[in-house]
């Protein structure tokens, strides 16, 4: 990609270990690196600029697979989650297959209960966080302070009108794509505000 296209909000793709992934440039780190958001997985990663490529138009229009989520009925003891709470949450996840029970889907955020059913007794995350002294069970869904700032999905993924699929939202920037024509023309597209 030309340097002029390497900017926050740019949709493109990146090659990592011989696989291609859709990404959105989240921020430019240095002359060599950028931080990208994976709209189909929901994570951030620092990659080399040289790994970035334009994405064909047909792949730009596909709905994002990542959906912003929040644990239902639980809030941090303070305004933000403590390191202890984060570590306990990661420990509970532990690369296991979990059961997710949807409580509600409001303002593009899926609020769900997570449960580990791999042992004799089911372990609900909101109860484990409460019992571990890291959270308060509140009986309602209140995204914690900084949820949008800490969650890139909230910046780049919005629900569709029927809230069944999350869609990629193009920031107010022009998108460029690699053309398949021999003369390498570039095409650009800009969504109107009422389409978002």
TrEMBL record:
Gene3D superfamilies: 2.30.30.140, 2.40.50.90
InterPro entries membership: SNase_OB-fold_sf (IPR035437), Tudor (IPR002999), Tudor_domain_containing (IPR050621)
Domain (Tudor): residue spans on this chain: 5-62
Source taxon at top rank: Eukaryota
Signal peptide: none
SUPFAM superfamilies cross-referenced by the UniProt entry: Tudor/PWWP/MBT (SSF63748)
PANTHER family xref list: TUDOR DOMAIN CONTAINING PROTEIN (PTHR22948), TUDOR DOMAIN-CONTAINING PROTEIN 5 (PTHR22948:SF19)
Protein name: Tudor domain-containing protein 5
